[in-house]
Design a protein that fits this description.
Layout: E1 2-5, E2 8-12, H1 22-33, E3 42-44, E4 56-59, E5 63-66, H2 71-85, H3 89-101, E6 114-117, E7 137-139, H4 141-153, H5 159-172, E8 177-183, E9 192-196, E10 200-204, E11 216-221, H6 228-237, E12 240-244, E13 248-250
Parallel strand pairs: 4-12, 5-10, 5-13, 6-11, 7-12
Antiparallel strand pairs: 1-2, 1-3, 8-9, 8-11, 9-10
Helix pairs in contact: 2-3
The structure holds adenosine monophosphate.
Length: about 250
């Protein structure tokens, strides 16, 4: 599902369901699209048959949450974790600069993610307004129940966390990706995360100030191992179902 106002992306969501559940899921997605602060002028729901494509089964990344008192501390923590993933200082600074200032060429947020060389900070996505969107991922019914329980046990009840964790799990397994940085463009939502196979999903409570409508995602790649066509194909087309859940735990203040 994708909701927009003119060229401005408002929200999006991904589901993988059985044929029997298509109608109910479309209704849920429309309710979801209309729940935003700004009413969308355009809602698009696209339905594709997965057909003979192999569905990859994954376990969700382990989650750890860190409470940062302010944006400065939150971003310092994010930078540290990205450094552990092998992202250079230059690329970390450029990614934070782009997400803070509006990464699309129009100056606003992008619909998809930036693909950035983790060493040189060069942007590699061909369309710098749209970016690359990860698609075709969801939780199995059992994993959905399990992750809701585990997240609420550590006080995380917002649907955004569950959806972001699913996306980050698919992205972390992408060929060539070594880490991801995200914070939302929702003005009310200040949390964000760094995720990778190495660090798991590190949720940081504050990565931007309230009332700021800019955010986005940066997927950092190891250029020496990158096959861009294979990466984009995996992100956009290969279906991933999360059938098992990782650990979820609270950590001290940074
Ligand atoms: P959200 O977490 O929905 O607030 O999205 C924050 C930003 O992440 C958006 O403005 C997009 O730039 C990016 N984004 C959202 N969904 C996706 C996706 N499925 N794949 C890649 N990037 C995305």
């Amino acid at each position: 599902m994708r909701a927009s106002n003119g060229v401005h992306h408002i929200s999006g969501a991904e589901r993988i369901v059985s044929a029997d559940n298509i109608s109910i899921t479309v209704q849920e997605l429309i309710v979801r699209a209309r729940k935003t602060l700004v009413a969308p002028e355009h809602i698009e729901v696209k339905i594709d048959a997965i057909g003979a494509l192999q569905v990859r089964l994954l376990t969700s990344l382990d989650i750890v949450t860190l409470n940062a008192p302010d944006k400065r501390t939150g971003r310092a923590v994010a930078s540290h974790v990205l450094g552990q993933c092998g992202v250079s200082r230059k690329s970390i600074e450029e990614a934070i600069h782009l997400l803070s200032n509006g990464a699309a060429s129009s100056g606003g947020s992008m619909r998809g993610a930036i693909i950035m060389d983790a060493q040189s900070a060069e942007r590699l996505e061909t369309d710098q307004d749209r970016g690359v969107r990860a698609s075709r991922f969801d939780w199995s019914e059992d994993a959905f129940t399990s992750i809701n329980q585990k997240l609420s046990d550590i006080g995380l009840t917002h649907f955004r966390t569950r959806e972001a964790l699913a996306l980050a799990t698919k992205v972390a397994h992408a060929p060539g990706i070594i880490g991801e940085l995200c914070w939302s463009d929702d003005p009310d939502y200040t949390a964000g995360y760094v995720a990778s196979l190495k660090t798991g999903y590190v949720r940081i409570s504050v990565l931007k100030d309230r009332d700021i409508p800019r955010g986005g995602r940066v997927f950092f790649v190891d250029r020496t191992k990158l096959d861009m066509d294979a990466l984009v194909h995996y992100l956009q087309n290969e279906p991933v179902l999360i059938t098992d859940t990782g650990n979820c735990r609270l950590e001290r203040e940074p």
